[in-house]
Amino acid sequence: MGTVHHEIDEGVLVLTLDNRGTNSIDLDMAHQLASLIEARAPDVGAILLTGKGDGAFCAGSDLGELKRAHDAGSGPAELLGAENRAFDLIASLDIPTLVAINGVAVGGGVELSACCDIVYASETSSFSLPEIRLGVFPGIGGTVRIPRRIGYSRSMELMLTGRTVKAAEALQIGLAHRVIAPADVLAETLKLARRFAKGPPHAIATLKATMRRGWEMPEREALEDALAAAVALGGSAEVTEGLRAFFAKEEPRFPRRGS
Question: How is residue 178 annotated by DSSP?
């Protein structure tokens, strides 16, 4: 049985997957992940996900648990449903979400990273979606979120072949946003998360909500929606503080979430 370690670092909720070196997600971990996010997200300004050790970020769903369920005739619904709930929670958060890929990301590990806003990867990391070799496919949001990130054709090729993408290619096609030395990937991701946690919470939440709505709207409607949201923010206390700090040549002191 694996676990999800958690700590709060300067307004950042750091969640670390830990399961026997592979950091694959079993049912208990999926429930832990959802519970921690529900309980702690309202009080922090950013969330960072990573895996314990440097061999794996996350090797996807726990295949041992899936095989036991398959052999018992109960199928994958319970585990995949719990994972989907946790992933949906992450994808729908109104605070920045970051992931430090510190090793292999396989199957559900790639799907989990695609739920996050920012993906930093170590130079020795890799990404793969090999589910088709088991007679299944990336069903925890992978066929939806990954094409929206890297495009339909690239996603289809990766899912049909199951091939492994190394860090440099992951950066090129958009699975990762930055590639960093293995010793530095967690620290650099945490540095960015701390910066986001000090940002204006209402403006960040509005930014994320506006981008999500705009993705589903016709261009003209999305432009009008974004303008209306920006105008509505104009008289906020966050804008007052941002302008004050700019002209005073100081760092702005925005309120922390939960304060």
Answer: E
Give residue 35's region: left, alpha or beta (phi > 0; psi -120 to 50): alpha
Alpha-carbon distance of 102 to 50, in angstroms, equals 7
**Which residues, at least 6 apart from 147, have a Cβ–Cβ distance to it below 8 Å?**
155, 156
Rounded mean pLDDT of 97-101? 98
Rounded (10°) angle between helices 77-91 and 27-40: 30
Mean pLDDT, the chain, integer:
95
Q: H-type helices in 77-181, by residue range?
A: 77-91, 108-113, 142-150, 152-161, 167-173
Residue matched to tokens 């990301």: 105
65-81 residue pLDDT tens: 888 888 888 878 999 99
**Residue written as token pair 């090793």:** 103
Residue with token string 């981008």: 211
Mean pLDDT of 197-211: 96
- Which residues belong to the active site? 111, 131
Give mean pLDDT, residues 113-128: 98
CATH of domain 3-197: 3.90.226.10
Do you know the residue count of the chain?
259
Domain coordinates in residue numbering, the chain: 3-197, 201-247
DSSP characters over 20-63: TTTT-B-HHHHHHHHHHHHHHGGG-SEEEEEESSSSEEE-SB-H
Q: Has this prediction a pTM greater than 0.90? A: yes
